[in-house]
Amino acid sequence: MSVRFTFDIHARDGTARNGTITTAHGSVATPAFMPVGTAATVKAMLPEQVRATGADVVLGNVYHLMLRPGAERIARLGGLHHFMDWPHTILTDSGGFQVMSLASMRKIDEQGVTFASHIDGSKHVLTPERSMEIQALLGSDIQMQLDECVSLPNERPAIEKAMHLSLRWAERSKAAFGGKPGQAIFAIVQGGDQADLRVQSARALVDMDFPGYAVGGLAVGEPQDVMLRMLDIVAPELPPERPRYLMGVGTPDDLLEAVARGIDMFDCVMPTRAGRHGLCYTRFGKINLKNARHADDPRPLDADGDCPVASRYSRAYLHHLTRSNEILGMVLNTWINLGYYQRLMQGARRAIAESRYADYMAETKAGWAAGDI
Ligand code: PRF
Predict the structure, then answer these.
(1) From the alpha carbon of 248, which atom of ligand 1 is closest?
(2) Comparing C-alpha atoms, which of 345, 319, 184 is closest to residue 254?
(3) How far apart are the C-alpha atoms of 231 and 16, rounded to whole Å?
(4) Is 147 in the pocket of ligand 1 (CB under 6 A)?
(5) Which H or E element spans position 271?
(6) Whole-structure pTM over 0.90, yes or no?
(7) Are 340 and 279 in contact (CB under 8 A)?
(8) What is the set of active-site residues?
(9) How far, in Å, CA of 155 to CA of 317, rounded?
(10) Residue in 149, 222, 245, 266 to alter for ligand 1 test, most ligand atoms within 8 A of Cβ
(11) How far apart (Å, rounded) are the C-alpha atoms in residues 33 and 267?
């Protein structure tokens, strides 16, 4: 029996939604946070630990994996799920965004992106067709169209040009998508901070009929209120029965606000990257474990919470590991953060199902603001 890609909405509270995405590799409870596993690893974590935090899906990157170890090699070795031993859902980003932030000598034209590898300087071309071919070789469950994302603030002509190029690349990506059972391709809405361009982009992509829609080009330098205004404008344009993914976002506060506006999926390096630098997210707000005030503190970060790490180790120990650059410090801090992001989304799902999302948001924010940490 082959599994179809589906999205079922169980409950709505205002514009917030609680649902389940089903892919070839299992189900994803939404709203969902997807830990970033750029190079076929969620840095510092074993796959079973990532799973234990509550993640149903992780993200992989075309850009990194095509350069090292190579998409054809991963395919020969049985695909990305087998290679990294993550048997659950995988979403892959198409590569354009990472090329623009990491590669040197980047050039974008109608055909695609030409760039030099940040690893060895070798030259590569990524077209919509090649990006989809790579995502098929990886065996990704949710594949993203190739797009162009410009940073903000930016001039309108540059935003408009990138939005139109992304629409043409959406057509080509969709035509090139292989689509085994249980796999899907998502479109990406662009248009920067320009309301009319956002609407134009969303409408053109909806006409192309994708199984899911992402909102790209946000959290790229604009203030939070601009991002939220764009979500207020874009979400009503998208088909209510299809999943919506806000790419590369964000802080816990961003997630709560975007869920309220109808977003179902998120990914961000923040919990993993911040963790490796000693920054932890908890119910009581953000804490910098490098700070000297923790050196003699015997209390765990969250004695009464369900995180096996945050309830167990003392702040003094986490401070010591972090200051000493110990590998275990990165592991524990990453675990705490991924655990917190997952609990935040679990709480959101429950609150939406019980029609008390606004209260959940207010209570959660009050917990951060109390700042007793
Ligand atoms: N496009 C793609 N990946 C992304 C983004 C985008 O706009 C962003 C923007 N926040 C993060 N990751 N393809």
Answers:
(1) 11
(2) 345
(3) 12
(4) yes
(5) helix 270-276
(6) yes
(7) no
(8) 93, 267
(9) 48
(10) 149
(11) 6
157-171 pLDDT, tens digit per residue, is 999 999 999 999 999
- Write the residue with the smallest CA distance to atom 5 of ligand 1: 216
Atom of ligand 1 nearest to the CA of 144: 13
Cα–Cα distance for residue pair 204/200, rounded to 1 Å: 6
Q: What is the DSSP letter of 300?
A: B
ipTM of the complex: 0.99
Helical pair 252-260 and 357-370, crossing angle rounded to 10 deg: 160
Q: Does residue 243 have a cis bond before it (omega within 30 degrees)? A: no
Ligand 1 near 96 CB (within 6 A): yes
Q: What angle do CA 110, 242, 209 make, to 5 degrees?
A: 40
For 249-282, give one letter per residue: b (16+ CB within 10 A) or e. bbbbebbbbbbbbbbbbbbbebbbebbbebbbbb
Mean pLDDT in consecutive groups of 10 residues from the start of the chain, 373 residues: 91 98 98 98 98 98 98 98 98 95 91 95 96 98 98 97 98 96 98 98 99 98 98 98 98 98 98 98 97 98 95 98 98 98 98 98 96 65
